[in-house]
């Protein structure tokens, strides 16, 4: 039984993202899935790629209510059209009960989200594309090896140390969440970003897990994975498998076996 | 005549940033300067670097009201301590009259700020550090040449095209500003980021200016530069000269003279 079109348009979230990869869109999906809120996912509809490209087109100058967007993910909600992943999270999280709508927590959580995305998403993409986003990995493989080494040895531990610092500083709850003693969207951000990083660098992440310095971080990862809605989602065919997106697995970028 | 300490602490903004480079802190400074609002700038005080490092220290777990921060810039305002440049801008801009405090514009402006910072700040830093942030430029010079070429030829025009698209889509004013027909903080972000990019790649930016495809962008740049408070600031000794920060000039990373 379909809802009346006018109502549906006003109330439903629409995620516009590339098909075939989890990518940045996956972080947005996890918020909807945890909250149990329905959403339209153009990545799984007809003309998925053309839909994305229509938003990015030079001649697309936005509309009366919205400026042009630069790149996906794009979120449509009623008349509003916004892009930039951390910005979409900032907008939807309070509406989904995954963040307070006002006060200092808004800025604390936004800072944490931005930092996790810098470390476990943007910098992971750089490991396989250190020279040019627009060129093939194969054309920058030598440089990728160097960048990946620096990521595995310096950057990844640095960001994990920060996440663990947040957990060590959390006095407000026993839940093991990053902020305020209860689950918020930044826990979902960390889960997805660490999951992707683990896909890309399984040996490195396994070693860091066993090292014992980041127990709180991996406990949080495991706890998110077991949340009923997330668990059901991960087991469903809505969850897209990793492929040639942000989080890629190239064995030659991994550390050597011991 | 000094204000009573208690009042001063509650009302004054304190920017914590590295000394000796404009860097990310400079974007925050421009907002205060345009608004004519006083602020404490630890970059210009004694122990500037140790102050930054004390926030980043592994043992610094934040305080009762704030989680740990990852990296500067850090903003203190009363009891609040936050980091991440786009997050600081999001927080201060409405308080300084440089953005609406609520509504769709918050998310439109945040997306624009994030995109400009990605293109003209983060990606410029990558041009001289494509392999490892923690290593010297001299140790990644060959890769830097490749990355800088891709930036000059692909990425910079792409982001300029987006900024021009925003201006072309702006129907609400003749002011030539990016959003809503009047100056907002994203215009200041674009000014600073383009100014830094011009310092790093003067020949490339001059050529793009003369090319005529981005007239609106350069008009905006010139207009910000002439605003009375900004002009006075740029001529003052509070403006820090470019050095070995995000926006660096290495002649070998520039395009060849024609």
UniProtKB/TrEMBL annotation, chains A, B:
Residues 110-253 form the GST C-terminal domain. Pfam families: GST_C_3. One of its GO terms (biological process) is glutathione metabolic process. One of its GO terms (molecular function) is glutathione transferase activity. Residues 12-100 form the GST N-terminal domain. It comes from the Eukaryota. This is Glutathione S-transferase. It comes from Trichoderma aggressivum f. europaeum.
């Amino acid at each position: 039984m379909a809802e009346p079109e006018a109502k549906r348009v006003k109330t439903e979230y629409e995620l516009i993202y590339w098909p075939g990869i989890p990518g940045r869109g996956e972080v947005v999906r996890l918020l909807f899935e945890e909250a149990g809120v329905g959403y339209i996912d153009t990545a799984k509809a007809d003309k998925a790629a053309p839909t994305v490209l229509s938003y990015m087109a030079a001649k697309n100058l936005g509309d009366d209510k919205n400026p042009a967007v630069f790149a996906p993910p794009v979120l449509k909600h009623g008349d509003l059209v916004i892009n930039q992943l951390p910005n979409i999270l900032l907008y939807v999280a309070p509406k989904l009960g995954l963040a307070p709508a006002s006060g200092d927590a808004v800025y604390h959580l936004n800072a944490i989200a931005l930092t996790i995305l810098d470390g476990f998403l943007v910098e992971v993409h750089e490991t396989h594309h250190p020279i040019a986003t627009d060129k093939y990995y194969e054309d920058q493989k030598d440089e990728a090896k160097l960048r990946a080494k620096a990521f595995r040895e310096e950057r990844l531990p640095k960001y994990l140390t920060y996440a663990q610092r947040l957990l060590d500083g959390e006095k407000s709850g026993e839940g093991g969440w990053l902020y305020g003693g209860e689950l918020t969207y930044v826990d979902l951000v960390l889960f997805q970003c660490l999951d992707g990083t683990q896909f890309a660098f399984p040996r490195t992440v396994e070693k860091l897990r066993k090292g014992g310095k980041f127990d709180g971080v991996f406990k949080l990862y495991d706890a998110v994975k077991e949340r009923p809605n997330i668990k059901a989602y991960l087991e469903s065919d809505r969850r897209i498998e990793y492929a040639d997106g942000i989080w890629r697995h190239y064995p030659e970028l991994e550390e050597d076996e011991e």
